[in-house]
Amino acid sequence: MSYQNILVPIDGSEISLSAAKHAAEIAKALGSQLTAISIVSEDPFSAADFYYSPDMLKDYILEAYKTAEEALEKVKSIASEIGVSINTQVIKGPVFAETISETAEKLGTDLIVMGSHGRKGFKKFLLGSFAQDVLANTHLPVLIIKQ
User: Fold this and answer.
1) Mutual orientation of helices 14-30 and 54-82 as an angle, nearest 10°?
2) Could you read off the pLDDT tens digit of each residue along the chain, which spans 147 residues?
3) Distances from the Cα of 146 to the Cαs of 22, 39, 55, 127, in angstroms?
4) CA–CA separation, 62 vs 47, rounded Å?
5) Cα separation, 92 vs 109, whole angstroms
6) What is the DSSP letter of 12?
7) Structurally, how many domains does the chain consist of?
8) What pTM value is reported for the model?
């Protein structure tokens, strides 16, 4: 099977940048379109049980977009080094697996490449597995990069 549209979600971590490198190498080998996304939640405190000021939220949003853009710039550099063009987008929405799967559908993606921190035991129980959630929320193939 040949993958024509590859999506790589980026959170700025080293493992997500490693996933971007793998995705770029696959895109180059297959002549595929590559897209990197970074998700920004504009109301991360929606379920919080404390009050926060509008200034606090404004500062958070500005910093979140800045961080997302910086991570995507790193991915552009990785893709450029490999010799692949890449589209990047900051996606506004909740940082959930569903946001990735919905974005993948909208973009006509046929492969998702993402990093996994490989948490085990109690850490996995406490923190969950975002990669596992993406696997459960899409019918698309998902390539998990662990290093």
Assistant:
1) 40
2) 689 999 999 999 999 999 999 999 999 999 999 999 999 987 655 555 555 566 777 788 889 999 999 999 999 999 999 999 999 999 998 888 999 999 999 999 999 999 987 655 444 443 447 888 898 899 999 999 987
3) 11, 20, 38, 17
4) 20
5) 18
6) S
7) 1
8) 0.86
Q: Which domain holds residue 20?
A: 5-145
Q: In 4-108, where does DSSP find H-type helix? A: 14-30, 54-82, 97-106
Place of tokens 């490989």: 118
Check if the beta carbon of residue 44 is closer than 8 Å to that of residue 60.
yes
Query: CA separation (Å) from 65 to 11, 49, 104, 132?
Result: 11, 24, 20, 26
Question: Exposed, middle or buried, 71 (CB in 10 Å: 0-12/13-18/19+)?
Answer: buried
Using CA atoms, how far apart are residues 65 and 60, in angstroms rounded to an integer? 9
Length of the chain (residues): 147
52 SS3 class = coil
CATH number (domain holding residue 58): 3.40.50.620
